[in-house]
Design a protein that fits this description.
36% of the residues lie in helices and 16% in strands. By secondary structure, it is α/β, with parallel strands linked by helices. Strand 7 and strand 8 (216-219) form a beta hairpin. Bound molecules: flavin mononucleotide and iron/sulfur cluster (2 copies).
Length: 265
Amino acid sequence: MKTLIYYFTGTGNSLAVAKGLCSRIGDCELIPIASLIKDPGPIVPDADRVGIVCPLYFFGLPAIVAEFSSCLDLSNTDYVFSVITMGGSGGTAALRQLDGILKEAPARRGLDSGFSIRMPGNYILMYDSLGQEQIGRTIRAADRRMEEIADRVKQGFREKLAWSPIAALIHHLMNPRFIHGVHEADRKFTVDDRCTSCNTCVEVCPVENIRLENGRPVWLHRCEQCMACIQLCPTNAIQAKKTEGRRRYRHPEIGIGMLKEHARR
Ligand SMILES: Cc1cc2nc3c(=O)[nH]c(=O)nc-3n(C[C@H](O)[C@H](O)[C@H](O)COP(=O)(O)O)c2cc1C
Ligand code: SF4
Ligand code: SF4
C-alpha cells in the first residue's frame, strides 16, 4: 500500500515526524508542501494512503497548508490522516479546520483520522526555547507517540475527530488575525552586525522569502512565520520583538543541511 506524506516545517519537528512515520509505515514518499504550491490547480496524489504533517500556528493550520489542502483532490485515495506538531495544546482545532477544508475541496472527503504530537515549541517571538534536557525528554515522548500513530495508520484506524470547545474558541479568536497579517509579519525582522552573509537564512526559508542585498537578508513579504531564518542563523543575527538573548531551537535530529534540501525542492 503506497503512502504519500505531505509536510510543512520550519525548525524540523514536523519533518522529523513525517520521516519517522514514513520509515515505520513503509512504501512511503515525503513531499514538501512548499514545493507544490508554486503550481496552482488541483493536486491529485497517486497513492492509497495520504498523510498531512505540519505545525500548529495559533491554534490552526499554517496559511500555506490551508491553501494546499484546498487544492487536494483525494478521490483516488483510500485513507487520509493528519498529524499536527505543537508546543502546547490546540491540535484538535487545526485537525477540524483541515477536515473542513478537505470536505470543501474537489473530492469532498475529510480525514479518516487525526493526531497531534507535543514537541518543543519554536515560537521564539513569544518565548525562550526549552533547555537541552527538556528538549530530549519531550522528543523521546514524541517518538513513543509516533510509534502509536504509525501503528494506527497501518491498521487503517478510523475515528471521529476530537472536539474541544476551548480550542475551537481560541482558534476563532486568534487564528484569522494571525493569518490576515502572516505574509507581512516579516516587517518586524531585523538583522544586526553579527551577520556574516553566509546565506543560510536564504537557503532554509521554505517559501523563498529572503534574498541577500549588500550581504544582508531582505524579507519579501510572503512569509509563513515558520521561524526557520531566526532559529537557524548560525550567529543569531536575526531578531524580532524580544528574541535577543533567547536560545535558538532546531529539532536535534534534523540538520541544517536537511532543512536546506527540503527548502530547495
Ligand atoms: C507562528 C507560530 C505559531 C505557533 N502557535 C502555536 C500554538 O498555537 N500552539 C502550540 O501548541 N504551538 C504553537 N507553535 C509551536 C509549533 O507549533 C511547534 O513548535 C511545532 O512543532 C513546530 O514545528 P516545525 O519545527 O516543524 O516548524 C507555534 C509556532 C509558530 C512558529
Ligand atoms: S543566516 Fe544569519 S549570518 Fe547568515 S546571511 Fe542570514 S542573517 Fe546573515
Ligand atoms: S522569512 Fe523566515 S519566518 Fe518567514 S517563511 Fe522564511 S524562514 Fe520562515
